[in-house]
Specification:
Helix 1 crosses helix 5. The protein is 60% helix and 0% strand. It is globular and about 35 Å long. It is an all-alpha fold. It has five helices and no strands.
């Protein structure tokens, strides 16, 4: 949250990954370990509810439509954010 940049590309990329790949429980544990380590380096404390923060969602959707110029077809932001936040909540916290 302290970083003040928008995260549109992050949600797009994570959505593609989560939608297309089989991610088993072992890999989910590895992802959570890496996420916690990165957050610790930045002085952040992530939780299962972190993506429920309205400001995170707002930043994630800012300039979403601008990616249409780069990508052509663009998936719906709400659907992408929902998939990513659902995956995040189901990490082995």
């Amino acid at each position: 949250m302290p970083r003040r940049r928008n995260r549109r590309q992050d949600i797009y990329d994570l959505n593609r990954l989560v939608a297309r790949e089989e991610i088993d429980e072992e890999l989910k544990a590895e992802i959570l370990t890496a996420l916690n380590a990165k957050c610790q380096q930045r002085g952040l404390e992530p939780s299962r509810e972190s993506l429920d923060n309205p400001e995170i969602k707002r930043r994630s959707g800012t300039d979403w439509q601008s990616m249409k110029l780069e990508l052509g077809e663009l998936p719906d932001f709400e659907a992408c954010f929902s998939r990513v936040s659902g995956f995040y909540r189901h990490l082995p916290w």
